[in-house]
């Protein structure tokens, strides 16, 4: 094989980055990097590397070694005989079989964190024949938000115009009985919810897409306007909150007001998997793969810590019974 740097990676050898690029090129190549990822300033890189070789600072054998490693891999992959992708599989992209598998992955990855308030019966699964359902939230009808970062664009995107799939709102509409009225309001106020006599409110909120350091966050609070939406809906009617995020967030201030809470993570294009579990066509079985903290000052928090006091512990996850069974499994 061969070694390759990350995007502008060698620039970070110095502080500030790129402050002594000749040194960065010299040290990285001599250290054994065979291919350098230089997205923009490649003429500068080429000129500096050529000059270092001509001055014998970098020996030609190091260049030959790097080239040999790169070419060997390309030959082994058959890129010189067949340099282009195999288009015979193009019809598999987005095919029904793959979407069904993705939908199954969504169902199995959901984690049910709360299901009913104290002394109250479980809320989930919901009946498909409820009279009137409110669907609210910034993430209820947004494929870009469902997919997260490194999808469509580097930092992800917002909206439904860039890829095919099923939003959670569309999935709910496709699941409920034809007699059920589904009302969508992205940011309803308290009076609207209270005055409309909804059977249940389903609030879908979370983070906007991010990738790499753009997602660094020192507070991990639930982004606005999610807190307002949760409070407006959950204080006016029975509610289920579906949280779309790439990680645990600080949600303890809002959990008490919720009747049910589902961590949906980033379900991607197949939002139907969320509706499958909400309405009992598939059971909730997922468990937390990491501890869910109460406050940001607890981070990092891991199972086994001396003062382990999480909102939800590692491995937590309520289960619901498979279809046609009424037992709630703790």
TrEMBL record:
<dbReference type="GO" id="GO:0009251">
    <property type="term" value="P:glucan catabolic process"/>
</dbReference>
<dbReference type="InterPro" id="IPR051915">
    <property type="entry name" value="Cellulose_Degrad_GH3"/>
</dbReference>
<dbReference type="GO" id="GO:0008422">
    <property type="term" value="F:beta-glucosidase activity"/>
</dbReference>
<feature type="domain" description="Glycoside hydrolase family 3 C-terminal">
    <location>
        <begin position="110"/>
        <end position="319"/>
    </location>
</feature>
<dbReference type="InterPro" id="IPR002772">
    <property type="entry name" value="Glyco_hydro_3_C"/>
</dbReference>
<feature type="domain" description="Glycoside hydrolase family 3 N-terminal">
    <location>
        <begin position="1"/>
        <end position="73"/>
    </location>
</feature>
<dbReference type="InterPro" id="IPR036881">
    <property type="entry name" value="Glyco_hydro_3_C_sf"/>
</dbReference>
<keyword id="KW-0378">Hydrolase</keyword>
<dbReference type="Pfam" id="PF00933">
    <property type="entry name" value="Glyco_hydro_3"/>
</dbReference>
<keyword id="KW-0326">Glycosidase</keyword>
<dbReference type="InterPro" id="IPR017853">
    <property type="entry name" value="GH"/>
</dbReference>
<dbReference type="Pfam" id="PF01915">
    <property type="entry name" value="Glyco_hydro_3_C"/>
</dbReference>
<protein>
    <recommendedName>
        <fullName>Glycoside hydrolase family 3 C-terminal domain-containing protein</fullName>
    </recommendedName>
</protein>
<dbReference type="InterPro" id="IPR036962">
    <property type="entry name" value="Glyco_hydro_3_N_sf"/>
</dbReference>
<dbReference type="InterPro" id="IPR001764">
    <property type="entry name" value="Glyco_hydro_3_N"/>
</dbReference>
